[in-house]
Amino acid sequence: MSKSRSGGSEPPSDKPERNYEVGYGKPPAERKFRPGRSGNPAGRPRGSKNKMKDSDLASIVLSEAQRHIKINDGERSVKMTVAQAIIRAIDINAMKGNPHAQRQATDLIAAAERLKEKDEREILEAVIDYKFRAQEELDRRARQGITGPDIIPHPDQIIIDLRNRETSIVGPLTKEEKARSIAAYEECREESRQMVQFIKNRLAASEKALAEEPRSAVVRRLKKAIESDRDLIHSLKRKAEELCEKLRPWGFEETRELWEGPIVLSYPWV
Q1: CA 110, CA 118: separation in Å to the nearest integer?
Q2: Which of 13, 18, 171, 185 is the most exposed place for a label (fewest CB within 10 A)?
């Protein structure tokens, strides 16, 4: 490198040096890296190779907390997560009178109760808001005499218990579940119709035989069979009505035909 008159180093010239052979490991002079400049300015910064992101650390912590281990519980070995084992150890030390463990256990219980109450409140508010908005839309359609896409879950099938802060849904949650419920209902309805027809025929025969049977032992058996068949009819009725209840908001009322409509009995004396 040439020296300047002031004694300092001169920056390399952009002009190719004389007698410079270009080849392997010897790029042209105009393509050489300049001093103080990175050869990969958009690359990874220094020190980032071993740097861990917060999300990576959180994943490791949660993965370890959920890892299952075996611990001794009296005379037997039980399997639980690391998080469960830690909480159990704190509780055991707290019950033994350790003041630090007692404070830890109390703080954990209070924090867990606050988090649970917060989640329950948010779920309850979301469900109430959904039911209110869904009912408003159904009322709007009824006033204007129009129809629209199915609202699933239906607001009539959302049960809210404000006292206990509990919610439940007795109907389908998706269109696919509704389609499966309809298919199951129709199958159940047909099976119930056939079964009720068979049982009523058998009941009629039992009642006819009971009226003509003089032997007390046979009478007792016939009465028991009649009561059993009546209970079976009520059981089929409850099953069909429970399934129908899930579809009632969409106009499914056919179940009543099974119990209120006439069913023809095949015996000539009926």
Answers
A1: 12
A2: 18
Residue whose tokens read 């007390």? 216
User: What CA–CA distance (Å, rounded) separates 98 from 89?
Assistant: 11
Q: Which residues contact 105 (CB under 8 A, 6 or more apart)?
A: 90, 91, 94
Task: Report how far residue 117's alpha carbon sits from residue 120's, in angstroms, rounded to the nearest whole number.
Answer: 5
In 3D space, the residue among 187, 207, 191, 188 whose CA is nearest the CA of residue 265 turns out to be 207
HEC string of 77-106 equals EEEEEHHHHHHHHHHHHHHCCCHHHHHHHH
The SS3 assignment for 23 reads strand
Place of tokens 């009478």: 219
Convert the pLDDT of each residue in 22-58 to its tens digit. 666 677 777 666 776 666 666 666 655 566 677 788 8
Q: Tell me how far CA of residue 105 lies from CA of 68, 95, 109, 134, in angstroms.
A: 22, 10, 6, 43
Could you identify the residue written with the tokens 């209840």? 245
d(CA 255, CA 170): 17
Q: What is the pTM of this model?
A: 0.50
Look at residue 270 in the predicted model and tell me its pLDDT.
29
